[in-house]
Write a structure and sequence with these properties.
The chain is mainly alpha-helical. 54% of the residues lie in helices and 9% in strands. The protein has six helices and four strands. The chain has a two-stranded parallel sheet. A two-stranded parallel sheet has the order 3-4. Strand 3, helix 5 and strand 4 form a beta-alpha-beta unit. The chain is globular and about 40 Å long.
Length: 108
């Protein structure tokens, strides 16, 4: 996984929102533990050298695309295929659902 500092903090913020807590049911301590674990597996993209705005319908998604481009990601893993696919393909980045990535990478 690659992320800029801003994107990583956005993930943390989203996980702590009340509607998300109702959906996942984690406590603040569990969220903090998850974020710490996720940080260990994240390659930090310290600077965005190549900005591509605007490419996507949702301006908030731009930081995901920029992190992927600047972090040389192979894929953006999301349920939002329709919004990401056209722009990501311009940069040679695959867009796939979590399930398809798991099947592709781990099925014999």
């Amino acid at each position: 996984m690659v992320a800029t500092p801003a994107l990583f903090f956005e993930y943390e913020d989203v996980l702590g929102r009340s509607e998300q807590i109702r959906a996942h049911g984690f406590t603040a301590e569990q969220i903090a533990q998850f974020i710490q674990t996720l940080a260990r597996f994240t390659v930090l993209v310290p600077r965005v050298h190549f900005q591509v705005k605007p490419q996507l319908k949702d301006a908030n998604d731009e930081m995901v695309l920029e992190a992927a481009i600047n972090g040389y990601a192979e894929a953006i893993v999301t349920f939002n295929l329709a919004d990401f696919a056209p722009a990501a393909s311009n940069f040679g980045i695959e867009v796939a659902t979590p399930g398809s990535i798991i099947r592709l990478r781990f099925d014999p």
